[in-house]
């Protein structure tokens, strides 16, 4: 049989650019963490927390996260379908337009142009660019799957298709707006409807951009890295359909105790709790795939990234439903517990899987073995320790913060003022900044290892069937 010729040049480019934007996201994140404890580091009007924070989140989600999705999907779809990409030219357009869009987003946010919607701050011209970019990507992936030579559709392809369709619907609906000038628009929705649509988008953007794609990667790279098949393809399919159905109803758990109708809040709360089952279905599938293979946690650096990643996913999907319960939400919402929860997902779950995927790809897209396994292990421990310091310190901070906010005297007055509560947060905020620096050091080790791999890595036999 003729061996397909895969386009790995485009994968190399997306890997490189996603790492660049990931570095920007973490570097800006460290800066804003220090701005929280050292206000003198805010330099108006542009280099302030208010301007830099959305650049941090959007560079992380769309630059690093979506950039990695592009790289991994373009690689995986060719291998699982056993055909080249449907259109190399469309993929090249996607690469250039991706970087133009991310750069335009960063510049406009720095200048203060924002819709003020969480995870959807970019104004309407950027929205148009995002839609063009996603349509180009979607067409290429879908058409490659349509013309596949492998009849069986492995679970990773299901998650890829769900992400493509889900993001498209979510982004189009939430970006509906009335432009009033080049960089100003007003939402097509108003009041509680606007809030409900926003968090339907916000939480399901996490589902379709930061959950389904890493699961597609996990299900592909774990068997490839360990050399053993996934424990149960049937369990993966059941988990997939359950996850996709349940996630769509959970967005309003961000709006508990608000004017949003109680029945919508209750519906979101119920589906959020049920979401534990399909999420842990994938966690158990990963763990059970390691039966008789746990020694690889010591011997195979890729397995450490993948298993710790799926573990953080499991913890994330316990914390999330817990926060969606009214009584717990009333206590913990708006505290530092929330960013601790979010960053366990982004730094622990999503990024560890992405790191593993990039390490796995290196010999196959560059034709060179990873330069240093010890450096890869050092990278693992630095990002793990940095993420744990960050998340755990904020979980503790959030519980203390909530306790102080809710503490009342016998006459009904508050025991602590807002300023007293904030002062108590400073040690935890310092810990967060230190954790961020450690994570940044780990990212630096990762990038250094990538550069040396490309320049000095030993030739690999894995790089076959590819275009330059």
From TrEMBL:
InterPro entries: Cyt_c_oxase-like_su1_dom (IPR023616), Cyt_c_oxase-like_su1_sf (IPR036927), Cyt_C_Oxase_1 (IPR000883), Cyt_c_Oxase_su1_BS (IPR023615). It is found in: Membrane. The chain crosses the membrane at residues 14-38, 61-81, 93-114, 126-146, 158-180, 200-222, 234-257, 263-289, 301-322, 342-362, 374-398, 429-451. It is a multi-pass membrane protein. Signal peptide: none annotated. The keyword Ribonucleoprotein does not apply. SUPFAM superfamilies: Cytochrome c oxidase subunit I-like (SSF81442). Pfam families: COX1. GO terms for molecular function: cytochrome-c oxidase activity; heme binding. Keywords: Electron transport, Heme, Iron, Membrane, Metal-binding, Respiratory chain, Transmembrane, Transmembrane helix, Transport. Residues 14-468 form the Cytochrome oxidase subunit I profile domain. GO terms for biological process: electron transport coupled proton transport; oxidative phosphorylation; respiratory electron transport chain. GO terms for cellular component: membrane. Belongs to the heme-copper respiratory oxidase family. This is Cbb3-type cytochrome oxidase, subunit 1.
